Amino acid sequence: MSGQYDPEVLKKLQRYELEILNDFTKVCEENGLSYFGFGGTGIGALRHGGFIPWDDDIDLGISRQDYKKAVEIFERDYADKYIVVNAEKFNDFPVMNTHIIIKNSRFITTEDKRGKYPKGIFLDIFPIDNTPDDEKLRNKHLKKTWLLSKIFIIKHIPFPHLPLKGFKAKIAHCITAIMWLFLKLVPHKFLYNRCLKACTKYNNVETAHAAYCCGSKLRGNVFDKQQLYPLRKIRFENTEVYFPGNLEDILTDEYGDFMQIPPPKKQKNHRPDVLVFPDELKD
């Protein structure tokens, strides 16, 4: 989903997201956990010194081991302020990453409406796993994890957002709706565990590559560890955030000339159908 915000509403949303970001980076740095911004968050840091002006989320990667620790700390020490939402805790959450949601807020998209899991203003945390150095093995690994993660989404969302329009979109949604009918019979935990096992297959092997294995793009979000480490801090709005050491090359490989502002039609975000701020909603 994408749409135009009232400028003041977007700025307010970004301020709340920065609040979650600051708490998350504090937890990581106090506990020796290694995170990094990537994707649009990286573009925003280099091109704008913070958010891409029309963007409404922050994407952070963190190694699988540190990801587990960060989630545990937030559940233990920040339960009064945040709700940790992922597919391990909620049997209708449709993706393989984690949302850290600020309490007393609402952020509900069209796709979210089916699920009963908590929905609010959130920070996206993506677990990063090892992936093979051999290109054929890596492509096989990423293809399998990508496919399993999309099946997992369709289990919960019969009409997921697709990068298609018109007749092609209608045909694709007919297929996903049929799949959804069959997948209703498959337990959530079974699909989740299958996907998790595939993602973490190479975590006990030393590799020079890592990836978020369940992204929207097949073979997207792959990192050469020589480009990734050592991490470096870059200013992001009112704070400093760790990013890949060679962020420029990573973004160029993924997006081409990322410093070029895209035309309005390609300026995408995740504008929700329902947005309520914490100062507007009480328990």
Question: What can you tell me about this protein's structure?
Answer:
This protein is an alpha+beta fold. It has one domain: 2-Layer Sandwich (Beta Polymerase, domain 2), CATH 3.30.460. 40% of the residues lie in helices and 17% in strands. Strands 1, 2, 3, 4, 6, 7 and 8 form a 7-stranded mixed β-sheet that branches. The chain is globular and about 50 Å long. The model has no long low-confidence stretch (mean pLDDT 93).
Please specify the SSE layout and strand pairing.
Blueprint: H1 7-30, E1 35-37, H2 40-48, E2 59-63, H3 64-77, E3 82-85, E4 98-102, E5 106-108, E6 122-131, H4 135-156, H5 166-183, H6 188-199, E7 209-211, E8 222-224, H7 225-228, E9 232-236, E10 239-243, H8 247-255, E11 274-276
Helix pairs in contact: 4-5, 4-6
Brief synopsis:
It is built from eight helices and eleven strands. With 283 residues, the chain is an alpha+beta fold. It has one domain: Beta Polymerase, domain 2 (2-Layer Sandwich).
- Our estimate of the beta-strand percent is 15-25%
The first-to-last residue Cα distance is: 28 Å
Low-confidence stretches: none
User: Helix- and strand-based class?
Assistant: alpha+beta
Task: Give the overall average pLDDT.
Answer: 93
Query: What kind of sheet is the major sheet?
Result: 7 strands, mixed
How many domains, in number, for the residues? 1
Beta strands, count: 11
Alpha carbon gyration radius: 18 Å
The 3D shape can be described as globular
**Number of helices in the DSSP assignment:** 8
